[in-house]
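thread from #wetlab-drylab

HS: before we spend reagent money on co-crystallization trials with pyridoxal-5'-phosphate, can we at least see a predicted complex? here's what I'd submit
DV: go for it
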Amino acid sequence: MDWHRLREDFPILHQEVNGHPLIYLDSAASSQKPRCVIDAITRYYERDNANVHRALHALSMRATDAFEAARRTVARFISAVTENEIIFTRGTTESVNLVAYAWCGAHLKPGDVILTTGMEHHSDLVPWQFAARSTGATLKHIPVLDDGSLDQEAFERLLTPQVKLLALVHISNSLGTINPVREMCAKARAVGAISFVDAAQSTGHIPVNVQEIGCDFLAFSGHKICAPTGIGVLYGRMAVLEKMPPWHGGGEMILNVTLDSCTYKAPPARFEAGTPDIAGAIGLASAIDYLEAIGVSHIEQHGLELTSHALEKLGCIEGLRILGPATGPRGSLVSFHCDFAHPHDIVEWANTHGIALRGGHHCTQPLMKRFKVPGSTRASFYLYNTPQEIDQLAEVLDSARKFFS
Ligand code: PLP
C-alpha cells in the first residue's frame, strides 16, 4: 500500500498552517474526508436531492434508493444480519442516548444495574446517568488498572444477575486501550444482560463484526471514518430492537395515526422520525466503500505501525509520560502528559509548527482524575498519516521541552 500516494485523495492535507505543511494528528476527534466522499455529497445535491420514502417522483426515488443502499453498505461493513438492524443517527452520542432513553426506559426498574467502565467517553456515560436517574436503576463502573486496561476481576465481581446492561468502549479515545469486548459481551449475556459497545474509535480502524463481537447494540460516528459530520449509526440486534419502543415521535416512524394515538413501524423506521440526513448517509456509504477498497485490515496494520513508531519516538523525550498500555496492540493514538508544560501549551506550541494535536480531558474527566492528571495531549493517527510526520512531532515536542523547561 502506498500510504504517501493515498494522501493525494485528501485535498485538505495540502495546505500550510503557520508557514509549515499541515500535519493533522487529531483524527480521533474527527477525520479528514477523501475527494470521493466530497464528490458523492456534491453529486447527490446536484442530481438527486429530494426527500426520501415519501414521493413517487424520480428524484425522490433516486434519493430513497441511495439512502437505503447506504444502509445496506453499513450492514455489510459491520456484518449485521440484516440492514434493518442499522439505524441512522447523528452520531455515537445520539445512538447512546437513543438506547438510554428507549431501551432503559422500557426495561429498567429500581434494583437493576447498568454496568459501565471508568474509561468511557462522556457520551457513553452521561446518558446512562440520565437513565439510572429516571428508572431508579444503579450505575456501576468497572475500574481501570494502572496499565490502562479494565480490571477483569472486578468485572466478574460486579457482574451479578442484577446487571441488565453492560456499556463499554471498544477502543478508549484517551488511552488507546482495546477492550476484550467479545469476551465481556459473552459474560454479560451469560447473566442475562444486554451489551452496548461504543465503537467510535474502532470502526474504520480495525475490523468490526457485530456478530463476532456478539453485542446487542453498537454505535459509531461517520465523521471519524472519513464521512461527513451529522451522520452516525446505531446497530441493534433485531430481537432487541423489536422489543424497544420509539424515542422520537414524528413522520416516517408510524403506521397509523389518529388524533389520540398511533402505531409504529418495524425497526429501523420506528427509530428514525423525521427527515434523515440523506446526504450524510450517502457520504457515509462512499467513505465505507473507500475504506473497504483499501482494506480495513491494512488500515489496522498501518495504525499499529504508526502507533509503535510514536511510542518509541515520544518515549525518548525527557519528562513525557505516555498514558495507556505500554505493550500489546492499542488504538491508533498516543496520549501523554508532559511534566514541562500544560497540554494546552503543548497544543499551541505544536500549532505554531503546523501540527494539529488535541489537549484536555478528551471528554473523559473521570479517567483523567483516575490517572491524577489535569488532562493529556493526544496525537491520533489515521490512514493518511506517515512515520515522517511522527518524527516531526517528536522534534517539535522536544523543542517544547527545551522552551518550557
Ligand atoms: N465515544 C468515543 C470513544 C469517542 O471518542 C467519541 C468522540 O470523540 C464519542 C463517543 C462521541 O462521538 P460523537 O461526538 O461523534 O457523537
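DV: The chain has two domains: 3-26+295-404, 50-292.
HS: ok that's useful, forwarding to the group
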